[in-house]
Specification:
With about 375 residues, the protein is α/β, with parallel strands linked by helices. The protein has 11 helices and 15 strands.
Length: about 375
């Protein structure tokens, strides 16, 4: 019954947004959003959608933007590239939006990017980290750091902080995110003087990694790099520990929500994140408190990135003094300011220049928790 009521509420909210953003309501401007709200990576999408919604609600409560109220038209792509393209087409042709947030992952975002560029619609992703995401052109942005930076951060941390000299890598060979992080980690770790003792791949949807792990165990690594999503890492950590591999595990931001799905096998685990919820930065603290009050759950890095994505859009509209997508993208490219996830400015490919937080998985009060360990900034 609760699920049925939730669905009805969601349908009502969506309908309200559609009418609010219709051409008949000249006092409201709609902004599109495409996120995986269901499916295997729904956690990322729902968190980012809610972070963006919080930012929008705060702006509306403060009187709106350029004399207008904002409405969010949100679509579910289920983490699927084709569905992302279909959602983008709907938002831009039927709903006439000129700015779209999304998607959460690299494949769907990249699939929609060429359409966004051709139609001169601003597309900004909170968390699509693959290199090619922004290559379509100057209307495409992102709020997160890119895959190579995360891989370099992981290698630097493993070598400098964990004093690892022998590394193994286990990654999904069929996913851009995973291979991007893995390639950057391997290159940087070797450049630092480390030795890559095992380089193991698997295919998307695999659940048995014991053959690869047997080879990893024989190589006797100091660290295992797992640049994979949390659902895979949950199984991999169990199987690694079951085979007696107790060294540190390191990964990327795909580990977000890992502690909600795994057990003690992920202790001695470290991952690069776009945001640390235990931040002491005033902007970060205010966001964490507001998100908890609004949604009755702790803020994740994906929520923080969703919030910043919306705020980047809002600040660009203010700077341009216009909702026109061409004016907004020109203003966004010039942004250099403080946000929840740190200071953000864009390089020539519209990738943000920003640092990464390293979080450690520990046990606190009998429960797993992510705690801030270090920050690694661009060199």
């Amino acid at each position: 019954m609760k699920k049925f009521v939730f669905i009805l509420a969601a349908l009502f909210l969506t309908t309200a947004f559609v009418f609010a953003g219709s051409s008949q309501d000249t006092n409201t401007v709609s902004i599109g959003a495409i996120f995986p709200l269901s499916g295997g990576v729904a956690y990322y999408g729902n968190e980012s959608r809610d972070g963006a919604l919080l930012a929008m609600e705060q702006i509306n409560a403060a009187g709106g933007l350029l004399g207008k109220k904002l409405a969010l038209l949100s679509e579910d792509d289920e983490g699927n590239a084709e569905k992302c393209v279909n959602a983008f087409t709907k938002l831009t042709t039927r709903d006439k939006v000129g700015i779209v947030l999304g998607s959460s992952t690299s494949g769907p975002t990249t699939a929609a990017s060429s359409l966004a560029q051709a139609s001169k619609v601003v597309l900004i992703s909170p968390s699509a980290t693959a290199m090619d995401v922004t290559k379509a052109g100057d209307f495409i942005f992102r709020a997160c750091f890119i895959d190579p930076f995360q891989g370099v951060v992981g290698a630097d941390f493993a070598y400098d902080t964990l004093n690892a000299r022998r590394a193994a890598v286990l990654y999904d060979a069929g996913a851009d995110y995973n291979t991007g992080l893995a390639d950057a980690f391997k290159t940087q770790f070797k450049a630092l003087g480390g030795q890559l003792v095992a380089d193991e791949a698997y295919q998307t949807n695999d659940v048995d990694f014991n053959a690869q792990i047997t080879r990893i165990r024989a190589a006797n690594p100091d660290v295992v790099y797992l640049p994979n999503y949390y659902n895979d890492v949950t199984l991999q950590a169990k199987q690694l520990r079951a085979q007696g591999i107790n060294c540190a595990l390191v990964g990327g931001d795909g580990w977000d929500s890992l502690i909600d799905n795994a057990g003690d096998e992920v202790l001695n685990g470290f991952w690069s994140s776009g945001f640390a919820a235990d931040t002491t930065d005033p902007k970060g603290v205010a966001f964490v408190q507001a998100y908890q009050a609004r949604f009755n759950r702790p803020a994740s890095q994906f929520a923080a990135l969703g919030y910043d994505t919306m705020m980047l859009v809002i600040d660009s509209i203010k700077a341009a003094n216009s909702f026109d997508p061409s004016a907004v993208k020109t203003a966004m490219a010039k942004i250099n300011g403080s946000y929840v996830t740190g200071n953000i400015r864009f390089d020539s490919d519209r990738n943000p220049i920003k640092g990464a937080a390293i979080l450690e998985i520990v046990k606190k009060d009998g429960k797993l928790a992510n705690v801030y360990k270090a920050t690694v900034n661009p060199k």
